[in-house]
Amino acid sequence: MKYLLKHKPLAAFIFILCFAFSAFAQESKFDNALKFITKTQPHQHLKIDSVFKAFKHDSLKMKRLKNASKDRYYFEGVSYALNALGEIQRNISNYDASIKLHQEANTYAKKGENVELNIISLNMLGVAYRRMDIVKPALDYHTKALKIAYTVTNPSKTVKHSIAVSQNSIGNIYLALKQYDLAISQFSKSLKLEEELNNELGLAINYHNIAYAQEANGDLDIALSNYQLSLKYNNSIDSEIGRVICYNSIGGIYLKQKNYKEAAPIIKVALEKALELEDQFYITSSYINLGQLELEMEQCAIAEEHLEKAYQIAKSYNLKSAVAESSKLLSELSQNNNKFEEALAYYKEAVEIENTILTEQNLQYVNDIAIQYENENKNNQIRALAIENEAVRLRLERNKNILLYTTLLLLILGTALFLINRTKALKRDKHILTLEQDMLRSQMNPHFIFNSLNSIKLYIINNDKTNAVYYLNKFSKLIRKILMASQEKETSLNEELETMKLYMNIENIRFSNEIEFIVTVDPSINTEVTKIPSMVLQPFLENSLWHGLSSKPDNKKIYLNVSKHSPSYITVEIIDNGIGRIASRKINERKRLNRNSVGIKITKARLANFSESFPNSYTLDIEDLYDGETPSGTKVTLQIPTNKTNIQ
Q1: Cα–Cα distance measured from residue 376 to residue 648, given in angstroms and rounded to the nearest whole number
Q2: What is the dihedral of CA 104, 108, 114, 118, to 10 degrees?
Q3: Is 134 helix (H, G, I), strand (E, B) or coil?
Q4: What pLDDT digit, counting tens, does each position of 249-279 carry?
Q5: Does the 239-358 domain belong in CATH 2.170.120.30?
Q6: Which residues does 38 contact at the CB level (< 8 Å), separation at least 6?
Q7: Homologous superfamily assigned to 424-641
Q8: Relative orientation angle of helices 240-256 and 220-236, to the nearest 10 degrees
Q9: Predicted pLDDT at 381
């Protein structure tokens, strides 16, 4: 250690090295988690969370999870990632962004027909609205989550936890409406569920909320005890945001007890940690507590500065309760400074905001909803018992004959379905085999083989051993690849591009190597993983050579571009600068040639067969290019599907 202190550059280097290694290890761990989850695609929220819990506060990693899950039509993964991103935005008080993300998460949960994630996203929406003190939508989302949760016959651990969250949030709405006894009742229900689940975070939250209601009722000593119990659980799970909340609340109790010596350090620590977390909601609370402390200690100038900060942040993020609380304290401060007009303005603003929250309409709405869903819960339980009893009765009434007939019927249906599917499979396999044989015959064209060998023979006659050996190796490699391709229905994009380069190399001999063949591939495409039908590009390149470039005197070019403009497709463009299809057709008619599109017809049939495994089919577009009115070549655009339909 002393050696490192004497050699600070070395110490700094070692620190950077360790940090880089740690970051690399984390990135590698996340990559493995991403591969595992998108491959296995679990349905249960608990399984997804067990893999990504360590990364859910990292927005970049959650965006990667969202995009990877979208590419694979894994809706649960998308919903989980969007909820995590929404929670990140909520914790820095970007409530509008948070709400949009949770709404999108809810949409994907419904697409995936996942009840757990549906309930979670509804609760998340309720929490975001509750933070903004917008009572009705907050309550609607939480009660909707409760209603769905109560319909689940055998609730999972996640569903039970979601019920606890809904009850806790409804309790928080009661707090905002100053219905403290009703709030404690809801928190106690939530606390009981969290104890059953042994969820320390849920215990920390509920003990804190119960203490808040007790504090509001004037039971300061009991409230302080519960705040300290909440802090104990937050320390146990190492929750920094939980500590901030508890420090603020404990500091608030000390303030009410006029114990300024104990209040000052804990409120300052709460502010310091809240600023580090960038959570505007708790930054505002800390500034209010600090301003109130300074006001009590008659430090008016610094109190005004801190309360003004709280007021401005609360205004910016539409934190209504915080605006009201800071306005009251600023009113008191203005009154102490004999600024009576300013004091009155602040006081009026506070009263007006409190009145918007504490309206009779809101109170009645909350009470009606609470009663409605308490009754709903009981009715659901009664219905579940009735359904269960009816099911038992029906099971007892079944007899052996019905079971026998059902078994026979299922056996007959199963046999029929098997025979139908088997017949279809045999027809499909026969069709595929025919296509592959046609493809092989097309690629193993005798004229192509004869002409290629003739060209190589010419090198031998001219005693050009280097080129003879070079092209003979290329030719043998191409023939081997064509024969291997005939045995495979699909190949990697990388293998296909390599085969096409070989093909163009051999064909170019007959053009005295005048043709420039240029291949470009989008770096975002993994050519080893992307699969396409084997030898699918060869007929288009052959057309470009013999119909586009064979009659052109010089400057012969073919471009093969591979790009990805959509998660569902790769786009292949084959562009030549030849004479165009119209001029080529006239030349062929004069020569009485019939180089038609047999190869392309086979390719279309193979592409159609390949596309059956995908939600979208292939597309093919052939376009004549012009320089003004003069034909300047042909462009073939082929879109090949890449994302297969998920089978759950």
Answers
A1: 33
A2: 10
A3: coil
A4: 898 888 888 888 888 898 888 888 888 888 8
A5: no
A6: 68, 69, 72, 74, 77
A7: Histidine kinase-like ATPase, C-terminal domain (3.30.565.10)
A8: 160
A9: 60
